[in-house]
Specification:
The protein is an alpha+beta fold. The chain has a single domain (2-73), classed as Alpha-Beta Plaits (2-Layer Sandwich). It contains two helices and four strands. It has helices at residues 13-25, 49-61, and strands at 2-8, 29-33, 39-43, 67-73. Strands 2-3-1-4 form a four-stranded antiparallel sheet, with helices on one face. Strand 2 (29-33) and strand 3 form a beta hairpin. The longest helix has 13 residues, at 13-25. 19% of the residues are buried. The mean pLDDT is 94.
């Protein structure tokens, strides 16, 4: 499954690297984040969308400087 999301609080590529590493630790792959808009996508196995949302929320608990918004199932 591919999820699309927006992240508030991104300032630089260092922010993107930190978020990417955290999402990878939670099972996400092929993570792409645009620093200008904060829009991103990530892939995760064939899990239920609500389970994927929970995984994203848990990952972002480790990233208190950033806010996750507008999570959608893309594919």
């Amino acid at each position: 499954m591919i999820v699309q999301y927006n992240i508030k609080g991104i300032h630089c590529h260092g922010c993107v690297n930190l978020i990417t590493l955290t999402l990878e630790d939670h099972g996400f792959s092929n993570i792409k984040i645009d620093t200008a808009s904060g829009n991103g996508t990530a892939e995760i196995g064939n899990e239920d969308f609500s389970a994927v949302q929970k995984k994203l929320e848990e990952a972002f608990k480790e990233l208190p400087d950033y806010k996750l918004a507008d999570v959608l199932q893309k594919g």
